Amino acid sequence: MPESSQPAVAEILRLRAPLSLQVLRAALKGKRVLLTEEELLSVLTSGGFVEGPPGQWSLAPAAPAAPAAPAPARFNQTTLAARAGVEGDVLLKVLDALVTDHPEVNWGALRDRLESGADVAVSDRTLGLLEEGVRRFEVARLRAEKQAAEERAREAERRRELQQLAESEVAMLRAELDDERRRAHDAALERDRLRQEAEKLVALKEQETASWVATAAGGWMLDLGAPETFGEEKLRQALGQLESALVVLNVPVSGREIEAVVVHLGGIAVVEQYDIPSTAGVVEVPADGAASVEGRPLEIADPRADVLAAVRLLQKAASLDLAYLPVLAFQGPAEAEGEDVLVCLTAEVDLAVDDMLHSQSTRVSTDDAVALLTKLGLPELPEPPSGF
Fold first, then answer.
1. Is 350 found in the same domain as 244?
2. Tens-place pLDDT, residues 28-69
3. Which range (10-14, 150-154, 260-264) has the least confidence?
4. Could you give phi then psi for residue 107, rounded to 5 degrees?
5. Structural domain containing residue 46
6. d(CA 216, CA 220)
7. Which of 27, 49, 146, 303 is positioned for an S-S bond with 44, CB 3.0–4.6 A?
8. What are phi and psi of 355, to 5 degrees?
C-alpha cells in the first residue's frame, strides 16, 4: 500500500509544496487515497521526498541528467598533422613510434587509414597520446640535432687541426726545399767559380807555353788555342797572309774570348768568325735586329752586336786611343746593312782587313803595338814588329 501511494504523493507535492503532514493526508483523501499518518510518513521516508521546515514535506529535486558524451572529432592526415603541430611526414613517424610506446591503441590501423586519405574519428585520449608522442619526438629530434651539431663541431675541429698540421708540414718541406735550392745554387756558383779559375789557369798556361810564330808574309802570329772547327782553321790560314801584322787568335779579354785580334799599321781589327757552311745560303745581317740565313735565325741572334761588344771590351782593356775595326767573317756569302761593321768571307778576311785598314788615316806605332800586347798580358815578341 505505501509503495503504490508514492506516485499520488509525488504528484501532489509537485503541484503544491511544501505541505504539512495533515494537509497532505487531506489532499490524498480527495484522490481517494486513504492513509494513516504512520503509513503516509512511511511513504515520505521511503525515498524521493525531503522534509524542509519542521513538519513540511516536498518532492526531492531530481538529479541533473548526465550530459551526453561528445562524439570523437574526425581528422584526415593534413588536419591531424595541423592539430599536432607537425608536418605530415613527421606525423607518420610519430605514429610509428607510438606503436611501441602505447600498444593499447591500434596506431597501425590509424596510420593506414590516414595514408589512404580517409577521415578518421580520433578520441580525446588518442589525441592526448599523439600530442605526447609529438613532444617526445621533438625532444628526440632536438637532442639528435644537438648531437649532430656537436659532432660537426668536433669534425670541424679535427679538420682544422689536420689542416694546421698539413700546413706546418708543407711549410717545413718548403723550407727544406728552399735550403736545398740554396745549397744547390751555392754549389753551382762554386762550380762556376772553380771552372773560371781553371779556365784562367789553362789560359795562363797556354799563354806561358804559346809562342809567337813568324808568318810567310812578314808578320807574327800567336795562337792561344788550337782551331776547333773548319771555319777557325780557314780564318787562321787567311790571317796568316797579312803582311807586317800581329795576329793573336783566341784572345781572352775580361772573361770573354775574342776569336782574333789583328794589330795592323792602320788600326786594330777585331774578328768574329761564324761556322756557317757556304752551302747554307746567303747570310743577312740587318742594321738592327736578328741575323738569319735564308730566313732561318742564326745560333747567335745578333752577330753585329756581338762583335761590337767585343770591340768595347778590347778598348776598355787596352785604354789606348787607337782605331778599331769590327769584322764579321762567314764561310759563305753575306749581305749586311750599315757601315759600322765589315762583313766578308772567311777565306778573304786578310784582303778585306788589309784594304780597310790601309784606307785609315791614323797609324799604329811600334810603341802602341807593344803597349797593346802588354795590356792584354801576351808574351813579348821575339823582335820588334817591322813596318810599324
1. yes
2. 888 888 888 888 888 888 878 888 777 788 888 766 655 656
3. 10-14
4. -70, -35
5. 3-59
6. 9
7. 49
8. -60, -45
Q: What is the pTM of this model?
A: 0.48
The domain boundary residue, chosen from 153, 177, 202: 153
Rg of the chain taking only CA atoms, in angstroms: 66
| Pairwise CA distance, residues 197 & 321, whole Å | 31
Instruction: Evaluate whether residue 24 is within a structural domain.
Output: yes
Residue 4 has pLDDT above 80, yes or no: no
Same domain, yes or no, for 233 and 330?
yes
CB 215 within 8 A of CB 242: yes
- Give the separation between CA 327 and CA 321, rounded to whole angstroms: 19
Residue 196 lies in a domain: no
Domain match, 18 and 102 both: no
In this predicted structure, what is the pLDDT of residue 1?
45
CA distance 107 to 115: 12
Question: 328: part of which helix (H) or strand (E)?
Answer: strand 324-330
Query: Is the model more confident about 27 or about 347?
Result: 347
For residue range 126-148, list pLDDT tens digits in order: 999 999 999 999 999 999 999 99
Cβ(364)–Cβ(322) under 8 Å? yes
The CA angle 267-268-273, to the nearest 5 degrees, is: 135
Can you give the pLDDT at residue 372? 93
Cα–Cα distance, 19 to 27 (Å, whole number) = 10
Domain count, the chain: 3
353: cell is 782587313
